[in-house]
Design goal:
Strand content of chain A: 15-25%
CATH superfamily of chain A: Winged helix-like DNA-binding domain superfamily/Winged helix DNA-binding domain
Largest interface: A-B, 36 and 36 residues
Helix content of chain A: 40-55%
Number of strands of chain A: 5
CATH architecture of chain A: Orthogonal Bundle
Bound molecules: manganese (II) ion, zinc ion
Largest sheet of chain A: 3 strands, mixed
Distance between the termini of chain A: 29 Å
Oligomer: homodimer
Number of domains of chain A: 1
Chain lengths: 142, 142
DNA sequence: TTTTAAATGAAAATCATTTTCATTTATAAA
DNA sequence: TTTATAAATGAAAATGATTTTCATTTAAAA
């Protein structure tokens, strides 16, 4: 958790038990959740906690790279842990069965970029690669 | 429009003036819009038209491949024309300046797939590549 | 022309997300 | 350790996108 303490500090965010609890929950589960799901969990540990606090924190955590936001079922937005908090370029993959989320650093978009720019006549500023699949546990039927 | 007439028919959707007006609007503009924006336009041409009708049609059009849904500004969902209504694998690129949307068929994800599967231990089922950039017109300052 | 299911409008409901504002708390200065 | 300050928070209400309901209309097929 030292890493996260540092990250919060670096970004001018205060260190609070609630923030640590949220981060721990994501770290422990490696799954993506809705703000509401996080709130349900947090209410067990903190008798007083509002849903807006969850929304506010998840948004900030995404901004500083601790979490990533993915579009999951039912056009809802979910958040999942983003382990690559270093600034390295990377992408995410989710398991449609258990909602596990992982990240990986390999990317070959660079090889494609020029060609797409020629065909579309766009200057490409961002590329987002998003993968869906079945994770190892779900393959094994866990 | 014959192409779209056929597509609607093939998918068991009735041919209506409103549907054609929606499709024409997307074809004419090559930009992505919110359902509300489409509604504002449609109200000029049809004195009676409800927002739910727009939502319902946009959703159906996406399902049959006429439109694609993209996440644009402010965490809203937008729809844009999807020219590649043939079933060919393709991806989309949007202009963050004028909201133009285009599609292109080249893709090199196949070369990456095995490697990502090894690293992440996922079986990859879907990949989505989504690009943002500046279109030719906006580059020229139009 | 008749029949039938799909499409629609109007109104209300839903529900995720955000805002407001008074209170609490982490942090750093004194 | 106090004190000062801005950030964080909870409660409640507001917002706003999207969906549902249901009676009516309409396209398409018989
Ligand atoms: Mn990449
Ligand atoms: Mn591809
Ligand atoms: Zn899984
Ligand atoms: Zn543009």
């Amino acid at each position: 958790m030292e890493k996260y303490k540092k990250l919060l500090k670096e970004n001018g965010l205060k260190i609070t038990p609630k923030r640590f609890a949220i981060i721990s929950y994501f770290l422990k589960n490696n799954k993506y959740f809705t703000p509401y799901e996080i709130w349900k969990f947090m209410k067990k540990k903190f008798k007083k906690i509002g849903l807006p606090t969850i929304y506010r924190n998840l948004e900030q955590f995404e901004k500083i790279g601790i979490l990533t936001r993915v579009e999951g079922e039912e056009n809802r937005f979910y958040y999942g842990i983003c382990k690559k908090t270093n600034k390295k370029h990377h992408h995410h993959i989710i398991c449609t069965s258990c909602h596990k989320i992982s990240d990986f650093e390999i990317c070959n978009f660079g090889q494609l970029k020029k060609q797409v720019e020629e065909i579309t006549e766009f200057d490409i500023k961002e590329h987002h690669l998003f993968l869906k699949g079945i994770c190892q546990n779900c393959k094994k039927g866990v």
